[in-house]
Structures are given as structure tokens and as C-alpha cells.
Amino acid sequence: MHFLSPWYAALVVLGALPVIIHLMGRRRARVQPLPTLLLLYASHRRVAQRTQVRHIALLLLRMLVCIAAPLVLAKPFIETTSDLPARTSLQQSAVLVLDDSVSMRYVTASGAGPLSTGSRRGESLFARAKKRATRLIEALPPSADVALVLGSRGNAAPQADLTHDRARLFSVLSGLSPSLRASDLPGGVRRAAQILTTVRHSARRIYLITDGSTQALQGVRPLSDTELSIVDVSDGQPLPNRGIVDIRSEPAPGGSGQSLRISVEVANFSEVPIKELTATLSVDGNAIASGLLDVPANGRVVKRFLHSFRPGNQAAPPSAPSVIPDASGERRASTEPSSEPAQGGLHHIRVALEPDALAEDDVRHLRVEVQRHIRVLLLDGEPRALRRDDEVYYVEMALHPGDRLGGEETPFVVTTVPIDDHLPVLSDFDVVLLCNAKAQELSRRQLDRALRGYVAEGGGLFIALGDNVDVDAYNAALADVLPQPLAVTKTAGTLERERTNEDEGKSREEAPLGNGEHLGRFDRRHALVQPFLHGRADDSLLAARFNRYVLLRPTPKTATGSGVVLSFESGAPALLERSLGRGRVMLFTSTLDRDWNDLPIQPAFLPLLQQIVRYLARAPLRESEAPTLVGQPREVRLQSGDTRVEVTLPSINKRLFERLGGRQILTFSDTHEAGFYRVAAASESGPWHPRPAEFFVVNIDPSASDLRHAPPEQTQALERPPPTAHDAIETSGPPQRRLELWHYIALAILFFLLGEALLLRQK
Amino acid sequence: MSILLDLPTLLRLQNLQLLSRVIAEGALSGLHRSAHHGSSVEFAEHKEYAPGDDLRHIDWRAYGRIDKYYVKRFEEETELRGYILLDVSGSMSYGRAGQLSKLHFAKLLAAAISYLRLRQNDPTGLLLFGEALRQYIPPHSGGAHLSDLCSALERVPGEGLTNLPDGIAYLSEVARRRSLCIVFSDLLPSSEQASDVPAGELVERYASRLRARLAGLRAQKHDVIVVQILDADELELPFSGLTWFEDIEPGPDGPARLFVDPGDVRAAYKAELDHFLAAMRRGLREADVEYHLVQTSRSIESVLLDILRGPLRRHIRK
Lengths: 763, 318
Known about the structure:
The complex is a heterodimer of chains A (763) and B (318).
Chain A: E1 2-3, H1 6-9, H2 17-27, E2 30-33, H3 37-74, E3 76-81, E4 93-98, E5 107-108, E6 123-124, H4 125-139, E7 145-150, E8 159-163, H5 166-174, H6 185-196, E9 204-210, H7 214-217, E10 227-232, E11 241-251, E12 259-269, E13 274-283, E14 286-295, E15 300-308, E16 345-353, E17 363-370, E18 374-380, H8 393-399, H9 401-405, E19 412-418, E20 431-435, H10 439-444, H11 447-456, E21 460-464, H12 471-477, E22 486-491, H13 496-500, E23 517-522, H14 539-543, E24 545-546, E25 548-552, E26 562-568, E27 573-580, E28 583-588, H15 605-616, E29 628-629, E30 634-637, E31 644-648, E32 654-657, E33 665-668, E34 675-682, E35 689-690, E36 696-699, H16 712-718, H17 725-731, E37 736-740, H18 742-761
Parallel strand pairs in A: 4-7, 4-9, 9-10, 18-19, 18-20, 20-21, 21-28, 29-36
Antiparallel strand pairs in A: 1-3, 3-37, 5-6, 7-8, 11-12, 12-15, 13-14, 13-16, 16-17, 22-25, 23-24, 23-26, 26-27, 27-28, 30-33, 31-32, 31-34, 34-35, 34-36
Chain B: H1 7-12, H2 16-32, E1 43-48, H3 60-66, E2 70-74, E3 81-87, H4 102-119, E4 124-129, E5 133-140, H5 143-155, H6 164-174, E6 179-185, H7 199-219, E7 223-230, H8 232-236, E8 243-246, E9 257-260, H9 262-286, E10 290-295, H10 300-308
Parallel strand pairs in B: 3-4, 3-6, 6-7, 7-10
Antiparallel strand pairs in B: 1-2, 4-5, 8-9
Helix pairs in contact in B: 2-4, 2-10, 4-5, 6-7, 7-9
């Protein structure tokens, strides 16, 4: 303990004064004769014990008052290690940049570790930051003027003007709450520096009150004429955190267009590995599946969920699981089938982890739009009057078996168009099957360029060959599309047609006759092959006999993203794949009818072809837009006639925009909540119509999850060294905080006097 | 002479005999104005009314019965011996500065009553008793006897311990015929007797013994009047600040002392005193003993008047 006026402290000896007065009073007490002394004895015996205690208490209280009074005059204080910057007490103009980003919602639990689930009791970093800011303002000299700026993206300045009014500052501080926005301390510092440009005659200081994480301080630069002090509200303690840093969706490999694979990337920003963390998938508010995952220390793990939506308005078959195991072989979690799978259409996907100290980053949202049907265009290169002889007959039967067998409906909507007929717009279809088309016809109809553009935009193209295919012409017309250039047609056996026309004695000279070839090699990792890997499912596929197919030239170096899915026994490719732009192309080196092989009559043909179409039709599931983060504006497209727009926030609150006539775009900036936003529009007096195409999700910035501290050298580099020797002395060693005690002692004196008065009243 | 003689005037009159006369005459003049005129004289017979008779003595009940006026005639008391027992222990000498001590107060009352009795030739004796008998003056009548009594009263100091029960016992021995016994005392025990007995219990025992002795005196057909004289200090304990209270009747080992803040014990002291006085009053009433509690701050005439309105009234002629 220290004293501002230590000489007064010597007067504590006055504490003996009551005792001395008492002793002197006892000696000098007057003697009073009393005839009724016996009665006085009797009465005194009854009250002696009580009065003795009271007298001792009175004596003690008076001694304490006599000791405390000099102490008040001596102004005692104690010094503790301060968590405030060292130069706070100097004369200055200061701007407090208070980080209100989502990471400041981190709750520091007492006792339990911050990663313990279900424990959110404690003090948030933002609450701590507000207290620290309050104490900082109190510690500043009364003449110091102060402003207040927030440090999240879109940083507002609740007190943009420098002021001496402490009450106003405290009022502003008390009304602040943390946002879900990402941190933008560089912007906050720039704004603070602008505020301080008006200061001429005093030191300029910016206090950054933040969690001290690397991501928060990233981009902050030291200023030339303004001192920067970083107030780390975590006090250097580690802030272990985990969170979902990414969420994506894509068509499920091997599934239909309604099957979805949702991948979430979970990051562990701590030195402790996480075991059996539960992640839960919800679709449209219903928990669909959950799984466990282990995340190594400072590592990341991708968790995948597979989910099938019901095709059209029809319920999914009971036997078909809505969530199927991921067969990709990548790290995945166990999933459970849902009892009520959602239908195709627009959906709100939500993946959540068990909440930890920062629960806000344990949830991530995704908007997916699932096509209700897969629209298939069959370009028939060899149409026939007799349907059975048509090039696409078997394809149609495979995609619509119900038409023939009266079975269940498939999700495919098939449109067959002869190659020389009027062609529809390709973008209206999810998959195009080009069956034995002549290259000249393609070029004449400019289908070659159209197909290339269609695939690049996300379409799926399947090319099947046949007698109409001239390899050189094909290579020329579809050079940008083919996975590999065609080389030559190989005949490995007697064709069906030749067997039926054996009497005519016709034979092809270009290929030797034989018994044909069978498929021999599968790319076992490919999604298409997965259904045929279990049991004897591949028997019929391997039983198919191929009498003729087209050999391919070696793969050019420029052809990237291509691969062989199926090969013949000879090693020649049978089915190839290539990624092109946002779409895919598959090349089947034989025919889809019985001209060159008997695959169409094999039981494996139907599932193989359906798998191929589903695989290629994944484009509609792709997100066509960048994700919106909290605080970022979102453009809402308006239709002609829309004059009013209503946006429903995740919290059910609504924002109404009117008098929008003539505008095509509405920029919606009130994205301060994370979740699913719904949009409805209406004309001037018409009813509201939902606009699912404009529905969107907003997520928090994943960078906010990383709360690992910035290295000390980074923070030291940001804080400018003190310009004067005086400051240097003051800042040497840990900063001290002075806690004055005299007002507490004065308060105690009041209580002592009150106690004395009460004791005296008991006489 | 006025009844309202103030204290300084009284104190200037050093002659107790004169003082007794002054006080007694003053009290008698007050008695004339009282509403109880003649009420204490014993009734003798009826006499038919004749002009000149006192109208106040007409028996209206007899008139109601026989329709004639009769006057009640009262029997004039014959000679009645009287004993005045005065407590002259040390506790009686207590008195606040500038005021009469209890003993002085009692002496004045005793002298005044003696004057009144001797004026009508009633033999009056005096016992001065402290721890033991100091002086006994047998009852005699005549004006010269008043001088003897006053002289004895003037000489005796208030000192020593108290043993009033023995004094009463002595009185019961010397008063063989029916007499009037008047006791002037503060009725307080000495703390010397509080050796190993709790003070409260000792006071209770002493008061009980005293009541028994007085009841015995009454049982001998004596008219007994007890005048308990206390100072205001004893009744109120008005002191303040830490004080050494000292017994006024020191024993062989010196006076007993108690260091106490009067404010702490005042309430308990008053309760104790009230209990003591109430017990005394109740006990004496049960024994048919007339009891007067007198505070020395009162005027002596008014105190004497109160006493005269009691049984003493029968023995005093105007």
C-alpha cells in the first residue's frame, strides 16, 4: 500500500485516543455516594454483560474512526498490474476502436474449457471489451477527448466526434452489442485516424480493443503520426475454437439429379484434437442426419452428407434411403436415413455442430435448388420408321422402362429429335445424348459449337458412335468436346446385322471377324461403376459382347480432366469422361443400339444408362452464385411490374421496399443475420408472390472462426514506440493500475459512525 | 404564618422548636381548609339541636327517620401515647446539595408532629435508632418536653449502618399500651449486609423482615404510620457519565463501590426500585400499616398535611 500524503498516515496513532480517554475517564470519574447502592448492584448485574459488549464495541468503533480518519487524509492506494495500456493516463486525444465482429461473441467459460459443449455461461469477449473500454475512458485524464468507432465490416462510429462528455460515452458504450459481421480493424483504424486529423495540440492515440487474433489484426498498419495501442481482451489466454468454414453441395456421385452431396469443412483452431464431434444436417428445418467426426489439432476435416430428394411430387420408394453412404472413399461420417425426404425444388440446407464457446460459427447455411426432373434430349442420328430399328429405341426404353412394363415412373423427361429436324434450345435440357450423328450434319446445323457452349455452361453431353460416324469428320467437328480423338473403327466380331444378312455374303474388309470383345476393366473409384461392384451385379455388364467399336488416338496433353471409366478386354477405352467448363462430356466408343454390341439387351444396360444420365445431369445442383456473408449487400432481381418487395429475415422480421417501379435490381443491405432469407414481390396493388429464385442464404465470414493469437512481434510492431524518454520510463515493465482506497475508507468511517450512533441509542 | 414557607426560609430558622411550630401551624391552617373537617373524630352520642350548635353536625339521617333535628356529639379522645422512631443511619444523611437531607427532612416532620401532640398534652416519646439504639426519650407531655425532643433531634447525626427491624422490635417492647407509632426512615438496607448474597435477594429479605416487624407492631393494637423518605436522586438516578457509586454507609473495609455509566443501568435500576417500593407498599397495606412515600423535594407542610389526613387526624385537635 502506498500513500499520496504519507505524513498523515503517522496520525494513525490517534487510534489509541479512545482507549486513553477511557482510562483517564475511569481514573477521573467522579465519586457519587448513593444510599440505594444495593439496588444499583442488582440492576447492574442484570445488564452488565450486555453493556460490557456494547462498551467494547463502542471503543473499537471509535478507535477505528480515529485510525481511519488520518488514512483518508493520507490517500492510500495500491498498485496492481493493469490490463490497460501504459500511456492511458497521459494527456491525449483518443479514439477507441471497439471490435464488435462475430468473434467477439466468444464466451469465456469459467472452470470448463471453452470447447466444452453446451457450456455458454460466462462472459463474452465483447462484454469484457465494453468493461475494458469503460475503464479505459475512466483512466484517461478528464481533459482527454474521446471518440468511439466499431471495428467490424461496415464499421459504424457510434461516437464519431471527439468529446469530453464521459456520461455520453458511457451511455453509447452500454448500448452496444456484438454483430455477426467479420472484423475490419484496418477500416476502423483508418476511420479513427480520420477523426484524429482534426487534433493539433495533443497526442493522438488509437486504442484497438479486440480479441488479439491474427485474422482481426490482419491488415492493420502502424500510423505515422498516431500511436496505436492494442487492448487484448483475451488477456493472452488461448481461445480454442472450432467452426464450419465452408459448405458446398454437388450432385451425389452415382445418384440421380435429385441426390445431393453436401460437404462441410470443419476447422479446429486449437491445440487439442476434437473427438466424436456431432454434426447435424437439416433440410428445410428438419434434422435429417447426424454424424460424428474427429478433427485433429489445428486441422481441418471435410464431412460429407448424401441426401436424395424425391423426384417430382412423388414420394420416394420406401426402400430407397434418402441418405445413402458416401462411396467416394473419402473421410466421411455415418449417416442415417430420413423418414420423410424432401421433394425437388428450392431447399434450405443447414449443418450445425455442437455449440462451443463461439456458437455462431458452428452453423452454416446453404441454398440448393434441385431439379424436379432431369430433362434429356436424344439427338437421333439414325431415325427409322420402324421404332425398334431406331438408333435411340433402347435408350428411350432404358430411361422410360415404365412405359413398356407399367412400372414406376422415372425422373427423366425424354425428348427425341432427329438430328436433321428442328432442334430445340439446348439449354432447356440437362443432358443431351448424341447418338450416331453424322459430323456433317452437326456442322451444318452448327451443333458442334452449340454443344461446346452448352457443355461449358454446365450441360451434360453423351456421345455414342455408330456407322454414321466418320472419325476424321468427328475429330474435326467436335475436337473441343471429345475426351479423346477418334482413331479407327475396330471390328472384333460378327455384327448382328451381318449375321442376319449372312445370305447376302456381305462382309467388312476393314476388320477381321471374331467372337467380339467384352468389357474388361472398370475404374472402380468412379461413381458410375459403384452399383456394379457389389455381388454379381457386374455379370451382365461383363457378359455384353462388343463386335465393333472405335479406337482412340492417344490423349493430347491439353485434354485435362479426362479419364477412362470402362475399358475392353483389349484395353481399348469403352467409356470416357471429360470435364469441360462447368459441364461434362462422356464418349461411348460403341453404339447404343444393337448394331455393334448386345449391351442394350443386357440387364446392366438400364442401370448403366440411367446412372450415366444422372451423373451428367448434375449441373442444376451447382450453386450459380457466390455466397453472401453477413453485412454484404445482396442484389435482388426484380421482374417487370414489381413495385414492392418484401424480404423475410431468418428471425422472421420483414423488410418492405416500395415504389420500386422501373427498377430491375434491388440492393438489399440489411444482411446482419445469418440464415435463410425469403423474397416476395408484388405489383402496386396485386398479391404477394414468393420469388424462390431470389431466396438466398447469408453466412458469417469463416475467417472469424480463427481466434489464434497474433504473435507478439506483430502486435509490438503495430504499437509505436514511445516518442519521449518520459514515456519510455513510464512504459518500462508491466503497466501498473492505481487503485485509490481513500473513498472506501471514508465510506467505512461513515459506517463506523453509524454503528456508534446505533450503539449509543441502545442505552 | 404562611404555609408556603420556602426552603431557604426554613433553613434560616436554626431553632428546631420554632421550626416545628411554624411547620405545624402552617399545616393546621391548611387542614382547616380541607374537605375532611372533623371526619376523623370518634362519634359519641346525639343531642337535640339547639341554636348555636354547629349546623355541620346535624344528623340528617336521623331527621329523615324521626323528623327532628339532632346534632352528633363527638367523643374527645383521652390521652394517647405516641412514639416517634427516627432512622438515623448514614443513608438518611444523603441529600442533594442545596436541599434538605432525608434526615433533616425527617427531623422537621418529627418535631412538627411532636409539637402538635404536645400542644394537646399527648405524651410523646422519641427513639433514635441506627444500627442500634442511639437514644430513647420516653413519652411525656408538657411544653418542656418539646424542648427535650427538639434538642435530641438537633444533636443526632446521620451515620453508621441500618438495622431498623431491631429498632421496631425495641419500640414494640417499650410501647406496652396502645400507642401511636410513627417511623421515619428510608427503609433501605445497608450494603454491608450484602456479603455473599445477591443484592436483589438481600433487599428482598430485608424488606420482608421489616414488614414482619411492622406487622407485629400493628398486631399489638398500635396505630402505625411509616413515612419512607427518599431523595430524588435515589428515585431517578439522574447522573450521567461514568461514575463511581459509593455506599454511603461504609463498612469496616471501607465503602462498597461500583463503576458504571448510569445511562446503562437507569432503566434496570428504576425497575428494581419500583419493585422494591411496590412490595413494601403492598406488604404494609396487608398489615394495616399506614404508609407514606415522601420525596425530600416536596414541601414539608404538604407532607405533614398528607400525614395528618390519615389516622393521625384522630389524635390532633385544631
